[in-house]
């Protein structure tokens, strides 16, 4: 497993959680941008990720979440206030951390949350993903993959080619992958069910960003979060990006708006503490 990145900064920290089958590298540009804005930033390396397919299949969503908790404990020991943000499946793990540990999390970045694989490129197989946990229990399709076709989450071809060449993400690369194994996707379905039930326990402010043209998970996933969390919500809908909004065309807007959101939440928290 590749090491998670860490950028030292100020007294507020942001924990960044990558998506299924990927590595912290998909969050590095966001992390650098948040660090330039003054935040201490740490990327989580999820259990089972960044190595072989067998390593991924040997892990489950509980192990992925445990990775987030361990990293959160570490970061909390070094900062006064912690935010958490995740991309795709990582957004679900970030929301779960906020629901389970409301006293740990000052705010949540929810980027391309994937509760349902209902984007325009997914096809009927992805839309039937609710059956995958049953297939896994029956031992069906362990080495079958849900094939992925271009655009691989990135709108602009130049960026797609660049990140496919230069952003390592395990044996298949960070963006140019053959697809996700059925049994790993079965774990994301189980995770989504768990987190959906917990959304009303999310009391922290949420910054929800989603591509309007997301080919993997439609913007209905963002609406689901906004409707069910109980904390204040701010929404950013991106018109010129696909699923991987942390590296696509509008990543600079995402970085700026995320930094502004976390900074405002932190300032309000400091003001409230002084007033008390």
UniProtKB/TrEMBL annotation:
<dbReference type="InterPro" id="IPR051044">
    <property type="entry name" value="MAG_DAG_Lipase"/>
</dbReference>
<feature type="domain" description="Serine aminopeptidase S33">
    <location>
        <begin position="14"/>
        <end position="250"/>
    </location>
</feature>
<dbReference type="Pfam" id="PF12146">
    <property type="entry name" value="Hydrolase_4"/>
</dbReference>
<dbReference type="GO" id="GO:0016787">
    <property type="term" value="F:hydrolase activity"/>
</dbReference>
<protein>
    <submittedName>
        <fullName>Alpha/beta fold hydrolase</fullName>
    </submittedName>
</protein>
<keyword id="KW-0378">Hydrolase</keyword>
<dbReference type="InterPro" id="IPR022742">
    <property type="entry name" value="Hydrolase_4"/>
</dbReference>
<dbReference type="InterPro" id="IPR012354">
    <property type="entry name" value="Esterase_lipase"/>
</dbReference>
<dbReference type="InterPro" id="IPR029058">
    <property type="entry name" value="AB_hydrolase_fold"/>
</dbReference>
